[in-house]
Amino acid sequence: RQLPSPLPMYSTWAEVKVVGVDEASKIQASIATKRGNRALYYEIDLKLSWKGKAATALKPSDGPGEMDGIIRVYNIAHDTKFQLGGDENTSYMYMMGYDMKLAGDWVENLKIEAPELFDLVAAKVDAVLLELKKK
Fold first, then answer.
1. How far apart are the first and last CA of the chain?
2. What pTM, to 2 d.p., does this model score?
3. How far apart are CA 135 and CA 130, in angstroms?
4. Average pLDDT estimate for 60-77
């Protein structure tokens, strides 16, 4: 996809995708019934591996232009929700990790694109939770 006009030095976005779920991820859920009403209680802490590829225009001539990283999406619970810029007590949170030794325009481009995974992962989590709540 094309970059918006404020960033004309890049002709295309980098590609970033989730490639695995770490065994250290934690998912806990329970259903409670009170006076005939059911309630779903849950806590989720996901640790996911991601891989990024440099935008074609920024791919370095001396290497693969790829970066591996991790994203931790946590604080997912029955009393929190996805909200960009939200409070840590009421919103999902995330942390990113990648090789800090890498440098170049392509790395900076991946650093801009990789946090978009938070939105995508949160949307998938919310879709699963919606299906659970229907049952």
1. 38
2. 0.81
3. 9
4. 90
